[in-house]
Each structure stands twice: as structure tokens, then as C-alpha cells.
Amino acid sequence: MDYNDFSSRLKRTISSLNGRFDEEVAVYVNYSQNENESSFSIIAGNDDEETIINKIFIILYNLSSLKDHLKNHLKGKNINPQIIEDEINNSLHLQILIDIVNQEKHGYPLKKSNRSDKNPIIKHAMQMINFTSNSEPGAIAGISYSKNELNVFGDSKMELTAMIFDDKDNFIFMFDELINICFEKFEHIAKKYNCI
Q1: What confidence tier does 120 reach under pLDDT thresholds 50, 70, 90?
Q2: 174 within a domain of the structure (yes/no)
Q3: What is the pLDDT of residue 132?
Q4: Which of 2, 16, 87, 96 sits at a 20 to 30 Å CA gap from 117?
Q5: What's the burial of 73, exposed, middle or buried (CB within 10 Å: 0-12/13-18/19+)?
Q6: Cα distance between residue 132 and residue 142, in whole Å
Q7: How many domains does the chain have?
Q8: Domain span at residue 12?
């Protein structure tokens, strides 16, 4: 493996980002029949909050590491790596990403470098079932259950989700938006400076 190959690094980052999804929904769903046998209880998601937060931070660390890989790649081309810092400072999403990762490393709130001036924090981290149906008329997705069996049908997956708030408890955006936009921006920067 070539640690300096930026295209390979992007592929590994995509793999990490996709780690927030799992198509094996049935593994995460616990169900039981209630005492009166006329209803069922279904609980989706079996990871505790600490495990979910750790999974989220692994994704955020992998994504934020693109910053240093881009800077090193530019240095190797004799291009001033400050360009990457400037790109980050011009994007709220990248600022929030870097702030969250730095807070995890150095503590909350940041004392030195708070790029966004929002002291972002992750809240409401959880697993959820995401049901989607294809665009065909009559297509559906869901869960069916009976006394002995649970079936998940249609396009469904377990998903890690969370909300990003500032230090005044104002909602900023969802975790998915943060990672999708940040990846797009890092990929755009890489293409702009011929890193891939």
C-alpha cells in the first residue's frame, strides 16, 4: 500500500464514510411479542451511545486526515500548503469538521484555534433504520413480523446519525450533511490542485 497515493487515500476515506451504513438490518432489530400476544415490541439499534460516538469519530478522523494528506501532496509539488488552510477557513463545513476533531483531541471548548467560532458539539447520536423504496410505482420498504419471524424488505439499512449544534444549542446541520459536504470539498480541492 502506498500511503502517499492520494487517490488510494480517497478510496479508503469513502470506505470509512460508508461504514456508517449496514444493510444487515435484521441483526440490529430485536423484537418480542407482548404478553397479550396481540402486539409486538420492536427495538432497532443495539449499540450503546459510547460505541456510536466512537464510530462517528473514526469517520470524522479519517475524513479530517485528508487535510494533512493534501498539504503534504502540495508540499511535494512545491505549492504552498497554506492554500488548504485557506480553503478550510472559507467553508463552514470544513471548519466544523476540524473543530470537532480538535475538540476530541484537546478538549471542549477549544482554547486556541476555533475556526468556526461555534464550539460545535455532536448530539443525539444514534442508530436508525433508513427505509427507501425504489422509484417504481407501488414499491415499498419496511419490516414485517409474525410470532416466529422478522422480515426486512425493500431497500433498508441501519445508519449512524447525529446532529451538530453550536455552544448556544443552535442546530447547525446533520452528521450526514457534514461528512458528505466535507468529502465533496476535499475531493474538489484535490482535483483543483491535481492531487488525483
Answers
A1: very high
A2: yes
A3: 73
A4: 16
A5: buried
A6: 9
A7: 1
A8: 6-192
